[in-house]
Amino acid sequence: MKHASILAALLCTSAHAASSSFTQRPRALDLPRSNSKSSSKYLLSSAFHVRGGDAVAAALNDAATATINNPNMIMEALSNLRSFVSGAKTDALLLLFTTAFITPLCRLLHTSPILGYIASGILLGPQGLGTITDVHTTEHLADLGIVFFLFEMGIHLNFDTLMEMRTDVFGLGMSQFTVTALAIAAIVKLTGVGGGTVAAMVVLGGGLALSSSAFVLQLLREKGEMKSRFGRASFGVLLLQDLMVVPLLVLTPVLAKGGDLGAALGSALVRIGMALSAIAVIGKWVLRPVFDRVEASDSQEAFVGVMLGTVLSMSFLTEGLGLSNTLGAFLAGVLLSETKHRHRIEKELSPIRGILVGLFFFSVGFEVDLPLIMNKFGLVAGVVLGILSIKTVIAAAMGLAFGLDLGTSQHLGLVLSQGGEFAFVAFHMARDLEILNDETTRLMLTCVSLTMAFTPFLDGLGHKLNIHAHAKES
Question: Helix, strand or coil for residue 165?
């Protein structure tokens, strides 16, 4: 009863105040006619002149007078707002809204979202409008997209499936990488790119022999082709390429400094063995019990936390040993694919992975040097077409050699013809070690980015060729 009485009193008081305000509200004809400033002040004071509100009305009247007499206050407030949201805050908002709107817009236009992300990166990146100020941090976030993507791919596999793919990985994959690297190295020697040195041949040959796991696997996922013969062959080649990143990154500084090549290869093998052993032990004796305990707690926050911690710790482990960070994430996914938690992990990880992979495609646009393309269009076009042609022919030929039919081999060659994300790492390292000069590095980074941009079109062409070849066979 006490609370009801108080509530009734408050309602009566509010109604009375509202009634007084309404009855005392000035009519339009009662407004002062002196000037717009006095009219604005009169409206403000009258609107807030309710019983007991004289002090508030006076304060608002003074504030209105100060604002009207000093219009620079508005400009100052806008300037302060602009300064507050500039830098990292603006970058974060742009990246989030980009990932939110690019996919629906591209679907409306019936084009690949990957192309939308690349175009946005070119427009907003350092070569375009320069809206993104902290490019380095954005690229770090983009690298995490590849890490989470490979972890999710590992979740869909298990050791039995990997053993079934051993021919695709160590047969088809090794042949594709070796032949492509040797062919490109020979061209580097003949043309004298990077001085035609052994170091330049290894870096450019090995770097351009790699394809993009993020692009290819995303396309396979979107079209539901991961379990097809074409999808398994593509994934096998990409997995071997991830393993070959290790010797490439280990050999590059050794060749630049004239070190012992045999010792470098031995060091790479030791590091691979250490990483695989550590991940196997951690997966069996640590990961499964931890996930079981967290699952039993029925806490979504705890589950997501341990999931993210697992992905990052495994990737840091392999990267710290000088290997690919995606290799650790992938192997962690394979270990967890044997557990009962795989479906929940996939569900919780999917939105995070989607945003970060979108950022990776966005960051690819940062590497496209528009002035270079305009000033040396013929050279850029020749290098891009050369990379796509050589890689397509070699991958398709290797596919035929390992028992794939003509249509699947053609599709495989076209979808693996682009440069890979680890080429960025290798070429940046080569520039820092003075194996490649700045002009050659910018040319290679731009060309690799452009080959990535062609991937959706080439995949569509390969799909049509595959269907046509199978139709002829039947």
Answer: coil
Which residues make Cβ contacts (< 8 Å) with residue 169, sequence separation at least 6?
Answer: 162, 236, 237, 239, 240
By three-state DSSP, how is residue 27 classified?
A: coil
Q: With beta carbons less than 8 A apart as the criterion, state whether 147 and 326 touch.
A: yes
Task: Write down the residue that tokens 């070849």 correspond to.
Answer: 469
Query: Each residue of 258-292: pLDDT tens digit?
Result: 666 677 677 777 877 887 788 778 877 888 888 98
Buried b (16+ CB within 10 A) or exposed e, 94-105: bbeebbeebbee
Q: pLDDT per residue over 399-427, tens digit each?
A: 999 999 999 999 999 999 999 888 888 89
Q: How far is Cα 82 from Cα 90, in angstroms, rounded to an integer?
A: 10
Give, in degrees to the nearest 5, the angle at Cα 232 between 230 and 234.
Answer: 70
Alpha-carbon 355 to chain mean position = 7
Q: Which residues contact 301 (CB under 8 A, 6 or more apart)?
A: none
Report residue 102 as tokens.
């690019």
Alpha-carbon gap, residue 403 to 431, rounded angstroms: 40
CA–CA separation, 418 and 387 (whole Å): 7
Residue type, 252: T
Selected residue with higher pLDDT from 441 and 59: 441
- CA 424, CA 364: separation in Å to the nearest integer? 10
Percent of the chain with pLDDT over 70: 83
**Max CA separation in the chain (angstroms):** 97
201/182 Cα distance (integer angstroms): 9
- Return the amino acid letter for 100: A
Of residues 203, 286, 215, 294, the one with CA closest to residue 249? 203
Candidates 184, 197, 207, 205; CA nearest to 256 is 197
